[in-house]
Amino acid sequence: MTSTSHTKPNSDTENDTVKSSPSNSGGMRLVVPLQGVVQGRGGLILGSLIPCALFYFLQFYLKRHRPKPSACNPPSPSTSSPNLAELHRSSSRLNLTTRSSVGRVFLSSRASVVAAPNDSPYYIGMDRFRADPYNELDNPDGVIDLGIAENRLSLDLMEKWISSNLNVSTLGGVGDGLNINGILTYQPFDGLTELKVALAGFMSQVMGEKVSFDPSRMVLMSGATPAIEVLCFCLADHGNALLVPTPYYPGFDRDIRWRTGIDLIPVHCRSSDAFMVDIAALDQAFSQARKRGQKVRGILISNPSNPVGNILSREMLHSVLDFAREKNIHVISDEIFAGSNYGGEEFVSVAEILDEEDADRDRVHIIYGLSKDLSVPGFRLGVLYSFNENVLEASKKLTRFCSASAPTQSLLVAMLSDTGFIKYYMRTNRERLRKVFDLFVAGLEQLGIKCMNSSAGLYCWVNMSKFICPYNEKGELELWEKLLNVAKINMTPGSACHCIEPGWFRCCFSTLAEKDIPLVMERIRKVVERS
Amino acid sequence: MEFISRNNQKQQLLSKIATNDGHGENSAYFDGWKAYANDPFHLTDNPNGVIQMGLAENQLCFDLIQEWVVNNPKASICTAEGAEDFQEIAIFQDYHGLPEFRQAVARFMEKVRGDRVTFDPNRIVMSGGATGAHEMLAFCLADPGDAFLVPTPYYPGFDRDLRWRTGVQLFPVVCESSNDFKVTRKALEEAYEKAQESNIKIKGLLINNPSNPLGTLLDKDTLRDIVTFINSKNIHLVCDEIYASTVFDQPRFISVSEVVDEMIGCNQDLIHIVYSLSKDLGFPGFRVGIVYSYNDTVVDIARKMSSFGLVSTQTQHLLASMLSDEIFIEKFIAESSERLGKRQGMFTKGLAQVGISTLKSNAGLFFWMDLRRLLKEPTFDAELELWRIIIHEVKLNVSPGVSFHCSEPGWFRVCFANMDDETMRTALRRIRNFVLQTKGLNNKVAVLKKQCSRSKLQISLSFRRLDDFMNSPANSPMNSPLVRT
């Protein structure tokens, strides 16, 4: 699939810390010592070194067979929906110099990575949907999006609450009147204290009232996306790595790697373990990283997990913490779906574990946000919660690059402070999620499609392996394309989430109204019946 | 021992970026802020506190904004009238931004430039304030170790915004008071040469127009020279036009966009504008930063990177509405200009009356004050000494020129738009009193010196009098937070 003239002239600019070797010029150099081994010269060392080297090159080659971006056709600024076929076509393009050139203009090497046309199905699907969105009346043949984890089920509750409760003085109240100075001027970059207090209460409520959160340990930012980037900038240097159990949220590949230069090492989980993280696998990945001289600075877990929808057990959290302590690394717990817990299973935050353990809190950090549980992704509110004073201090200074907007903070304070409403909202939202989830899973069952047991999140982890042929990533991507082009359904294939087993797809059901489900199933049926 | 080694272990748990000084908050610029934070002025509660004159914030037209928001409840969403838009706005997270927002921003930028240029809404990219915009462009245009040329004096925040996480450097283009700190082709070429000699790769030039801290505008010839220069070296031009609408007097503001349109042979792919609503409209709390690039690839990259600093859709919606209210905006721009001009005039005239000159400027939320004659000696140490007196004796947080990398000691930036009239009068009174007192003392010292040199008496006595003034117990430098640093 990859071009044979695959070269990397400026390899120092890549994220991979493994040294690459131009495979074409390496050929001769390998043959000669091999001769020596065969003829009894060169000996055991070369005899074991060379196959090992070849093995590593093979691993490396396979790992990187996904085509590298080329910068010769920069997309126009107004339409960023790339040609789907580029997924395959770009693999036949030569890898150009990593400095992208437009005319004679040079951009940075970081820029060239970002400039590349989307090659992840996660983003390509998103673009396709945006270019041709389904609308019952205006565009009934458009793409139905099951790719973005958005919750549209309960926004009406908020709208109703706002219209009966708020007025313009919410923006900055002084008694009954508006005093807008409060939101116009420079605010503390790490967020309004009132909002931190309100969020501490909200997070506690969301996580079952079993743990309390301290507002002074919070740093607010314009989304969980900048929050996790800022945290990573604080915990790791360029070239360091984080261990991430797979499958994982495709956005991490951008959010964490793009500008920090930090690498993500996938730690594969299997369906036989319900895709739960395995400590032995973590250990192995850590050791392998060490062997190649790569420093692991932390482990990133999502709880509830994305894309599978598992809730990590207490024991598992203890094990992860023990592992981190043993290796002296950080634990980042992305708990952004904690409140979207429709399954009724108890959610345990890593904060709760720390309450029990009372040890080594400095290595634990939580990422949260309001985009999922409160359905307000547009408002851009992310939380970094850390037990580490130094991390808090450093990240507070970094928030000036990504602060939350003051009027929005005021609105959220008002909303979150109405704890009665919030309780009602969270309960109703969970019920609605459950309902749609049940209908969705039942619909898939009727098509003979099973889902992994899940209890939280806005998606289900669907097993389409019996419909893919061949049983590998290629087969999976072919099914994905068919679903996108023929069925006009955008769902995220497991390979975009680095899942080691082909055939799994993440389907977000919370963008759907109940009445849309039969249509979705009908479209899926058309494709799978043919397979 | 175990405690120390555990601490070390903990420190090692953090990255270089988290533990280095890249945040710049240990510089003099921020020391004044700390002094202010410890003892903030309040007209009634703390009339002897430190007056903040180091923050370039525009508070002069809040009343106009307030009036508009109250009269347009639908725009804020968090009202009964606006609630019906809530669902679509809250769920919208496309990093392209609301189309109406981009259109309104483009239109506003055109208006501010007197409708002499057009801006394409599709080139508008959001960022986390101008702070985020600068960092984003640095990430796009330069690699770690590369440098941007920046004319001095420049906004201290650039040291952090362009360098901290990006690893990019700043290389100064020295401008001098002899020609009012104008940017000359000669200075640009010299700086470029110097950088080449030191093996530093220059990737771009960063200019501020209107200038912070000078408050002056670039004229058309200078802009043309700059554009010619960057074209000849094939480097990028990042034009920070964040103060574009704070112009309160002639000559009018000329944007780089006007020059770029006119110059044939200019490679537009090198031109990028940073903008924000924090200064012109006085909304720093809203966190609206804008990157406008003439380079398609940069727009694409910046847009993807904008995920790290998107503007809240509620804010986008509010601003789309406000900025499209053409009648309001025209009135606002005119009124804001007038109030800024009036305020600046009061200060500069008041200072002139006591013999303090300021650089002639017609824009910005500050002026560049010349205190060279008050320095003990023409050094930066003397400047910092004088500055400490101003902070702790006169109780004004003004910003010393050294923190702006000014090549000559004795200049201070004074912000005037972040206070009400009464505070302004208090500030002016304090400066005038200080100047007159210092002049009086200096005269006494000068007289004593003359006497001493004639009669060969010890001079130390007269210095002691000066020291007594400066070291009065209440305001001893030993109490200064600066002593810590």
UniProtKB/TrEMBL annotation, chain A:
Q: Name one GO biological process term.
A: amino acid metabolic process
Answer yes or no on keyword Transcription. no
The UniProt record lists the keyword Transmembrane: yes
What keywords tag this UniProt record? Aminotransferase, Membrane, Pyridoxal phosphate, Transferase, Transmembrane, Transmembrane helix
| Domain Aminotransferase class I/classII large intervals | 144-524
Q: Which GO terms describe its molecular function?
A: 1-aminocyclopropane-1-carboxylate synthase activity; aromatic-amino-acid transaminase activity; L-aspartate:2-oxoglutarate aminotransferase activity; pyridoxal phosphate binding
> Known InterPro entries for this protein?
Aminotransferase_I/II_large, Ethylene_sulfur-biosynth, NHTrfase_class1_PyrdxlP-BS, PyrdxlP-dep_Trfase, PyrdxlP-dep_Trfase_major, PyrdxlP-dep_Trfase_small
Chain spans, region Disordered: 1-26, 68-89
* Entry's transmembrane regions: 38-58
Q: Which domain of life is it from?
A: Eukaryota
Record's family? Answer: Belongs to the class-I pyridoxal-phosphate-dependent aminotransferase family.
UniProt protein name: Aminotransferase ACS10
Traced from the root, the source organism's taxonomic lineage reads:
Eukaryota, Viridiplantae, Streptophyta, Embryophyta, Tracheophyta
Automatic annotation (TrEMBL), chain B:
What SUPFAM superfamilies does the annotation carry? PLP-dependent transferases
Per its UniProt record, what CDD domains does this chain match? AAT_like
* Keyword terms of this UniProt record: Pyridoxal phosphate
Query: Which Pfam family is an annotated match for this chain, by its short name?
Result: Aminotran_1_2
Keyword Cell membrane carried by entry: no
Every Aminotransferase class I/classII large domain range: 51-431
Q: This protein's superkingdom?
A: Eukaryota
Q: Which InterPro entries match?
A: Aminotransferase_I/II_large (IPR004839), Ethylene_sulfur-biosynth (IPR050478), NHTrfase_class1_PyrdxlP-BS (IPR004838), PyrdxlP-dep_Trfase (IPR015424), PyrdxlP-dep_Trfase_major (IPR015421), PyrdxlP-dep_Trfase_small (IPR015422)
Example GO biological process term?
amino acid metabolic process
What are the protein's GO molecular function terms? 1-aminocyclopropane-1-carboxylate synthase activity; pyridoxal phosphate binding; transaminase activity
* Family from the record: Belongs to the class-I pyridoxal-phosphate-dependent aminotransferase family.
What's the protein here called? 1-aminocyclopropane-1-carboxylate synthase
Native species:
Capsicum annuum
